[in-house]
Amino acid sequence: MSFDLDQRTGWPEELLGLLKQFPRETWRVHTSPVAQFWLDRHDAFRREAETLEAMTNEYRAERVATREFAVKSAPRLQNMLGHLHGHHQIEDFHYFPHFRTAEPRLERGFETLEKDHRTLHEGIEQVVETFNALAAALGEQPGADLDAQRRAGERYVEASLLLYRRLARHLDDEEDLIIPLMLHRG
Ligand SMILES: [Fe+2]
Ligand SMILES: [Fe+2]
Q1: How far is the CA of 91 from the centre of ligand 2 (A)?
Q2: What share of the chain is helix, strand, coil (3-state, %, to 5)?
Q3: How far is residue 106 CA from its own chain's centroid?
Q4: What is the pLDDT of residues 126-167, one digit of tens each?
Q5: Ligand 1 centre distance from Cα of residue 104 (Å)
Q6: Distance 73 CA to ligand 1 centre (A)
Q7: Entry pTM
């Protein structure tokens, strides 16, 4: 199996011990305040990404103009990317060091999650860059080149959909590794 974020379909057997003891369907029953807070945070990211993706699909179906799409996406995007950055920092500098000391057998998993964060951050940079290029294309007036705007819109769409897909995988795998560990340690 691959540990790569774009190839991964979950964790290998050797990292699944605690998840078998605390399967997903029991998380709401055995929950702790920290685990619950973290799951809620992840669910908020999922909802934000789903909303942005739904807006993207409307744009792709040509039910929304490029300008309207950009104007409506901007605040949501900025909000989500800002929160995501802060969330990863807390994980990288607080949660992960603490948990990897507590459970060295999961080291490969933490290493993978940290690598995911780097990949996600490259993705965030791509999204910001392509969004700024889109805003610049929209700002060129008068005689706006609608094709150039559309192309810039497509580049942004491509970068953002890749980010949402990777984020969904990362959140699931991170939870599968860490929530059982939190519950196991009380
Ligand atoms: Fe993470
Ligand atoms: Fe997370």
Answers
A1: 7
A2: 80, 0, 20
A3: 22
A4: 999 999 999 999 987 655 788 899 999 999 999 999 999 999
A5: 18
A6: 23
A7: 0.94
